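hey so u asked for the seq, here:
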Amino acid sequence: MPLAAEQRSQEVTDWAARIGWTVGLLAFVALVYWLMRQGWKWRGTLQGDLPELPAAPADPGAVRLRLTGRYHGSTTAGEWLDRVVAHGLGTRSRVELTLTDAGLEVVRPGARDFFVPAARLTGARLDTGIAGKVLTEGGLLVVTWEHGDRRLDSGFRSDRAAEHPAWAEAVTALAAEHGGPADRPATAAAAASAPDPHDQAAGAHTARRTQGDTP
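ran it, structure tokens below
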């Protein structure tokens, strides 16, 4: 007759060790979250010189385009990882964009609305990423504008991405109509490359002496 199978006692769970590991993990997650919050606040403090965001005027003029989608954040222009967080610009949210003769109205449910006057617009382009958000080619509408002494890029994605090219063209055209900040770098570059009048006079004087003219 076969021997009865040896009975094995059930393994005892080491609850103290398990609870200790769980508490340690929760503490680590809380520490990381706290450090992220502190970094966010520190960045906002560094950007304290950024003025308050303007509100939309009572009469914004004729509507040129509208879209609904998402706001993915703002950065220093040309620096897609240098996030701007002051005045709620770092908060991602749903968005309703309206382009009018007066500028760009940005309405964000659950976050702070703002308005970009047409004279402060630089232009717009299609891009793939901003503020740590990466999308497909042309999946992001990036509007460049000036606020205070900073030039910013703000990223938007329409619910219908096919609208992006028309928006980029319309924003750039509106900026050009109002002679916005887009003209300033070109003007400065032209001034820098213009010949100095004293250099021109010296050159003419040298030419006359070479040709045998008396000064």
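The helical segments are 15-46, 164-177, 183-193, 197-210. Confidence is low (pLDDT under 50) at residues 182-215.
lmk if thats what u needed
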